[in-house]
């Protein structure tokens, strides 16, 4: 979006707007571009005049209509779906061409953010369908894209002159957009004043962006190309085909003694573990996995997204998760490869030589994994500045224990903090000091997999993700032992479910947990879970089906809008993650007030960019851990680093 907004070719084709309930007005900024030297087509203008009789005013002029320009210039409120897009475009090169007044972040209200905060679909098309409000025009999207995307062929670009019918449909599409957005705006409550400020901070973070070390990215891209060429030659020698030729390679593998179903990464990784897989096939599968390694595609994403200031803007999405945590976009900074080398900074310096043999000599790890390990390190500060990253330690485990009143775990966090050893000691009925490495591993998996009512399958699956196969019988016994040792957390699961069901069965009546930290209430079409911070998490159109709580939402796995069911453990997860996010937001505002500008947030971590002679890790940790009144008694710890490159 930001790169689009700064590009000289980007322009505003048309704009539609309305004031409150007034008719929708259409403005075509004709004459603002050099190619618009001719008169606007008269027949098309007549067609638009007739169409707009049922709406508002039609303006065909190069500059903004006076009432709109005056409203914006005076600081008037602007509401839009994905309002950051309008603000960024109109403050950028497209807006400058038509003399649009500057829009401040504080003027904007985003209906997409409102929808996401109420656990509704984020896209305009899907949220109108979910709410049953005025629907978005689907057909017009094809015409809109035809006008907005570069073309090849007989017609280099569509214009009102050479495609008047299509342009007319785009105008109708834009009018419909305003009506659809207004319908969502009226149907969905505004963000609270505090959450509106969080959204505004999100916009500021995206405006600031994160600098990318583009020269070093270019270096590693050369090395990746060299190594892919090497892998391709190896694969051709063995099979006669390229590793990217999926169907042919799959046929070769099956013809050479291994009945593989498909060449998806999980399937191939399972095949590598199979002792019956022939050695030559194993080698070919390894080549395919390395050649198609998605982790290194981040470098291309960085190059494509970096703006003229070498910074990545717009990488974070407010309320990207149901629990209100941020999600990442484009480069996907929240989903980076876990490094397998200890010194990414050294590797990045070595990339300058653009010598694949040198990288192979330096590292025993496969070159592709070395490249993937360095993506984080390509994020750097401006000259004279440092990056400072600070992360809450085990915040979800702390938050879960705090909500449940599981005092033995809270005491661990107030003391030595060895939660995995503590968990293992309870499972194996030994002292913390006697816990060995393998038992600690079991304690870690139990802490991560069982806290939200996970059973033996969840435990075994997570252990497998860490490369260890645990028999289901053993996993079942560990689950039983963990639940016996964490009775209050188990009780929290069932209490959350019971209270939520009571609230759904008695709309309008508030029901609280015994500790009064959480309140459930149905208001209108939403079941609200009121968090200790005062923020409300929403579940749309809740109902009880066979004594199970269900609601309409986006399914975690299919990403489809459907009726979902939930249970105590899932509610506990929502609760812990949501409260952890609120604690992070609390820390972010403390940091901003103290002069520490936030440029990103990854899970429970904040990333700052500060002058070399400013601030300290100690102060940042103290500001992060400045507990609000609602979290009294919660033991919190933050750890981080200050460096010239971002790292894990």
Number of domains: 4
First-residue to last-residue Cα separation: 27 Å
Query: For the residues shown, what is the average pLDDT?
Result: 95
What does the main sheet amount to? Answer: 6 strands, antiparallel
Oligomeric state of the chains present here: single chain
Low-confidence spans: none
Number of helices: 27
Strand content: 5-15%
Count of beta strands: 20
The residue fraction in helices comes out at 40-55%
How are the strands of the biggest sheet laid out side by side?
A: 12-13-14-15-16-17
Structural class: alpha+beta
Morphology call: globular
Q: Which value, in Å, is the CA radius of gyration? A: 28 Å
Question: Helix and strand layout, with pairings?
Answer:
Elements: H1 2-6, E1 15-17, E2 25-28, H2 42-52, E3 58-60, H3 66-73, E4 78-80, H4 83-91, H5 93-97, E5 108-110, H6 111-117, H7 124-131, H8 140-148, H9 164-187, H10 193-208, E6 210-212, H11 214-239, H12 246-255, H13 265-273, H14 279-291, H15 298-305, E7 311-312, E8 316-317, E9 327-328, H16 344-350, H17 356-362, H18 367-372, E10 379-380, E11 385-392, H19 395-404, H20 407-414, H21 419-428, H22 437-450, H23 456-465, H24 472-485, H25 487-505, E12 511-512, E13 519-523, E14 526-530, E15 536-545, E16 548-554, E17 561-565, H26 568-593, E18 598-602, E19 605-611, H27 617-624, E20 638-643
Parallel strand pairs: 2-3, 4-5
Antiparallel strand pairs: 1-2, 6-7, 6-10, 8-9, 11-19, 11-20, 12-13, 13-14, 14-15, 15-16, 16-17, 18-19
Helix pairs in contact: 2-9, 7-9, 8-9, 11-14, 11-15, 13-14, 19-25, 19-26, 21-22, 21-24, 22-23, 23-24, 25-26
């Amino acid at each position: 979006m930001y790169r689009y907004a700064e590009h000289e070719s980007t322009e505003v084709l048309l704009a539609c707007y309305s004031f409150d309930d007034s008719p929708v007005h259409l403005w075509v900024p004709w004459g603002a571009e050099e190619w618009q030297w001719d008169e606007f087509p008269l027949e098309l203008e007549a067609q638009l005049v007739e169409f707009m009789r049922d709406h508002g005013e039609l303006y065909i002029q190069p500059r903004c209509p006076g009432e709109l320009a005056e409203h914006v210039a005076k600081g008037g409120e602007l509401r839009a779906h994905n309002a950051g897009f309008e603000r960024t475009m109109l403050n950028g090169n497209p807006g400058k061409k038509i003399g649009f007044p500057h829009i401040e972040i504080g003027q904007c209200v985003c209906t997409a953010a409102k929808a996401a905060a109420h656990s509704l679909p984020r896209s305009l098309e899907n949220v109108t369908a979910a709410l049953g409000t005025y629907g978005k025009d689907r057909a017009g999207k094809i015409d809109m894209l035809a006008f907005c995307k570069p073309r090849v062929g007989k017609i280099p670009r569509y214009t009102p002159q050479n495609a008047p019918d299509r342009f007319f449909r785009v105008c109708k599409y834009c009018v419909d957009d305003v009506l659809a957005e207004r319908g969502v705006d009226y149907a969905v409550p505004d963000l609270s004043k505090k959450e509106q400020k969080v959204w505004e901070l999100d916009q500021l973070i995206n405006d600031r962006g994160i600098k990318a070390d583009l020269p070093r990215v270019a270096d590693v891209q050369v090395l990746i190309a060299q190594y892919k060429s090497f892998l391709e030659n190896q694969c051709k020698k063995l099979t006669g085909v390229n590793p990217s030729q999926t169907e042919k390679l799959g046929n070769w593998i099956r013809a050479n003694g291994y009945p593989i179903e498909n060449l998806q990464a999980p399937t191939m990784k399972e095949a590598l573990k199979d002792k019956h897989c022939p050695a030559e096939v194993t080698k070919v599968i390894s080549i395919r996995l390395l050649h198609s390694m998605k982790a290194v595609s981040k470098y291309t994403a960085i190059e494509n997204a970096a703006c003229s200031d070498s910074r990545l803007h717009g990488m974070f999405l407010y309320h990207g998760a149901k629990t209100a945590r941020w999600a990442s976009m484009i480069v996907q900074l929240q989903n980076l490869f876990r490094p397998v080398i200890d010194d990414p900074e050294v590797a990045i310096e070595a990339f300058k030589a653009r010598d694949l043999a040198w990288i192979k000599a330096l590292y025993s790890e496969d070159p592709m994994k070395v490249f993937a390990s360095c993506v984080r390190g390509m994020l750097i500060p401006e000259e004279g500045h440092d990056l400072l990253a600070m992360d809450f330690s085990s915040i979800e485990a702390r938050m879960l224990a705090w909500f449940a009143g599981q005092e033995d775990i809270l005491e661990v966090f107030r003391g030595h903090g060895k939660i995995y050893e503590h968990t293992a000691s309870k499972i194996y009925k030994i002292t913390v000091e006697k816990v060995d490495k393998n038992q600690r591993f079991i304690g870690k998996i139990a802490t991560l997999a069982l806290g939200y009512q996970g059973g033996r399958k969840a435990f075994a699956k997570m252990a497998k993700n860490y490369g260890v196969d645990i028999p289901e019988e053993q996993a079942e016994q560990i689950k039983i032992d963990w639940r016996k040792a964490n009775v209050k957390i188990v009780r929290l699961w069932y209490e959350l479910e019971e209270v939520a069901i009571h609230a759904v069965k008695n709309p309008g009546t508030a029901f609280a947990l015994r500790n009064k930290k959480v309140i459930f209430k149905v208001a209108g079409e939403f079941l609200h879970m009121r968090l200790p911070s005062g923020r409300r998490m929403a579940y749309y159109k809740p109902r009880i089906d066979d004594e199970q709580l269900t609601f309409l939402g986006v399914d975690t796995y299919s990403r489809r809008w459907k009726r979902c069911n939930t249970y105590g453990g899932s509610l506990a997860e929502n609760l812990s993650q949501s409260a952890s996010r609120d604690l992070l937001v609390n820390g972010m505002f403390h940091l901003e007030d103290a002069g520490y500008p936030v440029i990103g947030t990854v899970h429970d971590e904040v990333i700052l960019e500060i002058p070399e002679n400013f601030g300290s890790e100690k102060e940042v940790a103290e500001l992060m851990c400045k507990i609000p009144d609602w979290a009294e008694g919660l033991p919190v710890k933050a750890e981080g680093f200050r460096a010239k490159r971002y790292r894990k």
